[in-house]
Design a protein that fits this description.
Radius of gyration: 17 Å
Mean pLDDT: 89
Order of helices and strands: HHHHHHHHH
Number of strands: 0
Structural class: mainly alpha
Length: about 210
């Protein structure tokens, strides 16, 4: 597909997905209002990059369901977490079947059925580690972050096992950066979700060598 056409299609699809996400956020029981331009613009930019990478041969087309699903949830959850310092169950819990569907779809298209197996294992490992941190120090990591970590771990493990460790490090660095920017003195007032989602977005859009064309 022509690079320009692919980029335009990706941009348009991302903008529509962002607008649908904004509509969803306003209708959630514990939702929020986010200017449609932020969500539409963010997803339009992310999906434009994805479309360009697929069309240019830098990313196999069968991998696309995983970063597309991940980035949709990432943009919405980041918006809510930055504004209200919480991650609503109405988004974190549906992310599990969404990522399961995305990984199975990618596996069927590849075909490589190690992808959903690796994703399931990654979800368990990442969620367990975050749950242990939460139980040890609830103020440093909220329950919402634990619920989010499983679906994020699935996407990261699908991209390759090294992504789990590197994402954890990047997430911690982003959280520290947010703390410095807000000059917050309270650890429980610093959202960890944006860092975790930023790292997951990075490694699903620019995956490791585990993601290769069949």
């Amino acid at each position: 597909m022509d690079l320009l056409l692919a980029t335009i299609l990706g941009t348009t699809a991302g903008a529509v997905a962002g607008l649908s996400g904004r509509h969803l956020l306003t209708r959630l029981r514990r939702g929020t209002y986010v200017h449609s331009g932020w969500l539409a613009g963010a997803l339009a930019a992310l999906w434009a990059v994805l479309a360009w990478r697929v069309a240019s041969g830098h990313l196999p087309a069968w991998w696309l369901p995983i970063p597309a699903a991940l980035t949709w949830f990432a943009v919405l959850l980041t918006a809510v977490d930055l504004r209200h310092n919480r991650l609503p169950n109405a988004l974190t819990l549906p992310a599990y079947p969404a990522m399961a569907t995305a990984t199975v779809t990618a596996a069927a298209l590849a075909p490589d059925w190690s992808i959903p197996v690796r994703a399931a294992a990654g979800a368990v490992v990442f969620a367990t580690l975050h749950a242990m941190v939460h139980l040890t120090s609830p103020d440093s990591l909220g329950a919402g972050d634990v619920k989010l970590s499983g679906s994020v771990g699935a996407a990261l493990a699908a991209a390759g096992w090294p992504a789990l460790l590197m994402a954890a490090i990047i997430a911690a660095l982003v959280t520290l950066l947010l703390a410095a920017m807000t000059q917050s003195r309270s650890r429980d007032s610093i959202p960890h979700g944006p860092g975790l989602l930023t790292a997951a977005t990075l490694f699903t859009m620019f995956p490791t060598t585990a993601v290769t064309s069949p």
